[in-house]
Amino acid sequence: MGEGFIGSIVIGLIAGWLGGKIMRGGGFGVIGNLVVGVIGAVIGGVAFWLLGLRAIGFIGSLISATVGAVILLWLVGVLKQSK
Fold this sequence. Notes:
The N and C termini lie far apart (36 Å). The chain has one domain (14-77). The relative contact order is 0.21. The protein has 3 helices and no strands. The chain is an all-alpha fold.
């Protein structure tokens, strides 16, 4: 992500919101989903790297971060159900 720190945070926040919309019922409210988006941006970046994919530009970074947020929301949902 070549947008810099602030750009990465903004992308993560948007991705968290999108991830919450995609994973209806799996979200944590607005603030929680935004935090998940920031963490998901890192997860998405790693997942894309492991798959040999590269996120280019704002849209690519947003897609990568949203995928990461969805993965994180799904994992947390699975862990929540197992309790």
